[in-house]
Amino acid sequence: MPAVAALPVQFAALEPFVTAWALPSENARSAKRWASHAEDFRRFYDAMLPRMPEVLAYLDEFPLHGLPAEARPLYHLALAFAESAAHVELYGGANKVPNSFDQARFMAAHGERTD
Amino acid sequence: MKPGSARATGTIAARMPWTSRYPELGTGPLPVEPIISPALFEQERTKIFKRVWLNVGRVEEIANPGDYKVKRLDVARTSAILVRRPGGEICAFHNICPHRGNKVIPESGNETFGRARANLLTCRFHGWVFETAGAVRSIPREEAFADLHKACFGLRPIACEVWEGFIFVNLAAEPEQSLTDYLGGFGEHFSGYPYGESTARYKYSAVLNCNWKVSLHAFSEGYHVSTIHSGTSPNLMRFEHKDFRLFGPHSTSAFFVLPIAGLEPSPASALFREVLHRSERHRPRLHEIPPTMNHERRTDFLFEFPVIFPNMLLHLSAGNGYPGMTYFTHHFWPLSVGQTLWEGTNYFRPPESASERIAIAHTTAYHRNGWLEDTSTMEDTHAALSSGVLEEIVLMDEEIMIRNTHHHWDRYMRAA
For residue range A45-55, what is the model confidence (pLDDT) as tens digits? Predict the structure, then answer.
């Protein structure tokens, strides 16, 4: 956990996930997904899902392209949740899509973007 | 038991209602040789890919005067520069300097983007400068060349036309048809949708160790959906794939998802769907699809699903299928007889809030995961077909778009 809080105080309970999951690009978040275990996905999912309506409402107080620095880690956590939920909801905690092509060979043209 | 002597009862017309509407396609098997023959692959370069119109981009990718995109076209052993002129027109050129053949624009990967400053392109080798209309503007030490007719030393043009914001090139010296004539009824069927509003694009690509037609054909049918997509898409286990229509080498169809009792979207998917569906821009907007599609105006319409000869698919769903997604495309670029660059691109109207952006990331991830399932069979299929064990493959009724693609592939390959 970072020594200085990365999230707005009302989301302090999500602070333990910041270092691992609040990653700014899809490529970085994909690398985290591929390296995660069932329990990592489950803990992150269970912590995020009930807070998501509140998280989205908080983020929507700012213009999308003018998110202040204090909102960005939370924004990246929410993106990581959006991209990883299927591992819990559909894939039984597996870190790859069952019976799939090698995900490392899929290139995302937008993969390094941080918007 | 031989294919065709199956125990199924009923006439061909009853078993294959779509295929039997097009008797010119027949109902027989397809040969495997076009998939594995190096000699036929060499012929495809000239008889198909240097003859027909190929979609190489969208106008929004080069929105401003001077913007360019360089698209590698390995199948024709060239790269196309697509550049927007000050008046808005888009021109295409081979990426080769007419002096000694260097690439005018250095490329990084399959697609390279940049901007021609002051609407000029400069070859970095010896500094020849070209206008974005192609003419050579200046040649350093021009006086040291013998009898150089500058008019003959412009960039080598490629025929380029735009349909509904999709940029097409034709590598023939003189295309035998305009793009409008080439697209024919397909172009009319898909015209009128506001494609240009969906400027948010999320594109994936992969080099697949399979022939381009293995990949194209796998994405050209819905027969695989209930097996291949059972992991990511339990909601797609009941569907209808119908309304097949052929437009010369192109074809189309409509895909519908049927309800499954007791199956609810997962909590995250339900949450993000709600975010997009309460937005006027991202909600299902079935009224926007062209009037010739989904003529019954069914609300369980997932997408209109065509094959655009030779190597493109364009799924139009107007936000009624995957949440927020207006349309998506596939392209299959041959690299060698056994290697293909696949590109899949998802299009959305741009998000205007963080919650919309995050919900779009969910849809994109879900669809990417489905594509990881789709692509999982292709290298196995190619490897197995390369054994030569099978000389033919067989198709069921709803694989008719594969049959049509092959029918016209054969027609092009037989042409002189």
Answer: 999 999 999 99
Query: Alpha-carbon distance B107 to B73, whole Å?
Result: 12
- How far off is chain B from A103, nearest CA to CA, in Å? 7
Residue B171 has a CB neighbour count (10 Å cut-off) of 22
Q: Minimal CA–CA distance to B246: which of B395, B52, B404? A: B404
Token code pair at residue A71: 């909102």
For residues B158, B163, B164, B165, the Cα torsion angle rounded to the nearest 10 degrees is 0
- Tens-place pLDDT, residues B179-231: 999 999 999 999 999 999 999 999 999 999 999 999 999 999 999 998 998 88
Task: Tally C-beta pairs within 8 A across A and B.
Answer: 120
Axis crossing angle, helix A72-89 with helix B267-277, rounded to the nearest 10 = 130
Q: Which residues of chain B does A45 touch, with a Cβ-Cβ cutoff of 8 Å? A: 268
| pLDDT computed for residue B361 by the predictor | 98
Q: Which residue has the tokens 């027909």?
A: B52
Disruptive mutation site among A48, A76, A87, A107 for chain B (greatest number of B CBs within 10 Å): A107
Element (H, E) at B202: strand B200-208
Q: Is the pLDDT of residue B288 over 60?
A: yes
Name which of B267, B359, B361 is nearest A49 (Cβ-Cβ).
B267
Q: Name all domains of chain B by residue range, CATH numbers in brackets.
A: 53-175 (2.102.10.10), 196-414 (3.90.380.10)
| Cβ under 8 Å to A: B residues 320-379 | 351-359, 361-362, 365-366, 368-369, 371-376, 378
For B54-101, give the DSSP string: EEEEEGGGG-STTEEEEEEEGGGTEEEEEEE-TTS-EEEEES--TTT-
d(CA B283, CA B22): 37
Q: Looking at this predicted complex, what is its ipTM?
A: 0.97
CB neighbours of B71 closer than 8 A, spacing ≥ 6?
A: B56, B57, B79, B80, B82, B110, B111
Tallying the residues shown for chain A, one arrives at: 115
Chain B residues whose beta carbon lies within 8 Å of the beta carbon of residue A78: 354, 358
